[in-house]
Fold this sequence. Notes:
Its EC number is 3.1.1.29. With 200 residues, this protein is an alpha/beta fold. It has one domain: Peptidyl-tRNA hydrolase (Rossmann fold). 36% of the residues lie in helices and 20% in strands. A 7-stranded mixed β-sheet has the order 2-3-4-1-5-7-6, with helices on both faces. A hairpin with a 4-residue loop joins strand 2 (42-43) and strand 3. Helix 1 (25-37) packs across helix 5 (164-187) and helix 2 packs across helix 3 (124-133). The protein is globular and about 50 Å long.
Amino acid sequence: MSSEAWLVFGLGNPGPKYEATRHNIGQMVVAELASRMGITLSRTKLRANVGTGRLSHGPVPGLPGPRVVLATSTGYMNETGGPLKQVADFYGIGPDRIITVHDDVDIPFDTIKAKVGGGEGGHNGLRSTTSALGTKDYVRIRVGVGRPAGRQDTADFVLSPFAKAERETLPILVSDAADAVEMCIVEGLEPVQAKFHARS
């Protein structure tokens, strides 16, 4: 695997207890991408579930799409950085080709934003990633989950399942976020921002 590959890392917590929670939407997006690419993520010694393949399309019509490594951590959110860096180092992928996909309470549900760098906004997975990579300069695909109503603690909110009304549109949001990842890889960050930020 050359450094021409991309790493798409879906942030979240392990196990069935967490798989349907707001904090795991990044892993839901990676699962959608794996389905599109026809690959399965397998548990590895890198402390991550990993699968490799190619996008179905690329910048040049008729040629194979870019090679992509999809991964999720087998550990908890606040330990994301170690497994992510291990996968990146194993495949020789630098921060400029790393895309993290994660929940974001600072933007409304059903909203997608993308950026390189910036703060972590109190997100433990991003804080761990930045610490492990030694840089903030990696792509973040931010999937909005909104803020809790009333006095509910934010930590409890992101570890809870989506509301019934949200679950009805969740598959579309996950699909759109997967589209954003593919567009970022094939076309670059600015087209993603132009398309998805305008919908906010």
